[in-house]
Amino acid sequence: MNYRKTAVGVLLAVAVFAVSFSSSSAQNRPRSTAEAVRGHFAGVNKRVLDMAMDFPADKYDFRLKPEMRTFGEVIVHIASGNVYAAKAGRGEKANWDELDPKDYKTKETIVALMQKSISDSEATLKNVPDDAFSKSIEPWVAVMEHSAEHYGLLVAYYRANGLVPPASRPR
């Protein structure tokens, strides 16, 4: 009887080790191209959306310089990239700057637009088969790069207003 308890205990320990080893191995494997593209695309969109939601409504018309876009216009421009990605990702004909900032006058409408553009583009991206990324990572990487560049610009809008961007705040 003692032998059986010991054997069961050893088998149980081996099973627990095997499960924990296989799950830690899976966590340490490099992400696939599809996982990386989806993750980075979602990440930059989350940071921009956090800013859109956080930035004071009364400062949405702020410009760093007179010839530059307002904070709100930059968010609309980023959303336009997402709209382009969703359409191009589905194989539709699309233009990058389809959205006119004049159609989005308030923080609420701009945030709603950004949320919808993220939802639509990520739904399209989710439906792209993983193996398609071995052929091309466009339009996703171009839109990601574009959004990340404008994210950096939005940081300047925050700093020029004496504000700390959400991603830079202590947690």
Could you walk me through the main structural features you see in this protein, from its secondary elements to its overall organization?
This protein is mostly helical. It is 64% helix and 0% strand. Helix 3 (71-89) packs antiparallel against helix 5 (140-160).
Task: Provide the residue-averaged pLDDT.
Answer: 87
Could you tell me the number of beta strands?
0
What portion of the residues fall into strands of 2 or more residues? under 5%
Terminal Cα separation, in Å? 54 Å
Tell me the helix content.
Answer: 55-70%
Which H/E pattern describes the elements? HHHHH
Main beta sheet strand tally, sense and closure: none
Q: Which residues form runs of ≥5 with pLDDT under 50?
A: 3-24
Helix and strand composition category: mainly alpha
Rg calc: 23 Å
Shape: globular
- Count of DSSP H/I helices: 5
Task: Label this structure with key terms.
single chain, 171 residues, mainly alpha, 5 helices, disordered N terminus
Give a topology summary.
Blueprint: H1 2-28, H2 33-54, H3 71-89, H4 107-127, H5 140-160
Overview in brief:
By secondary structure, this protein is an all-alpha fold. It has helices spanning about 1-30, 35-55, 70-90, 105-125, 140-160.
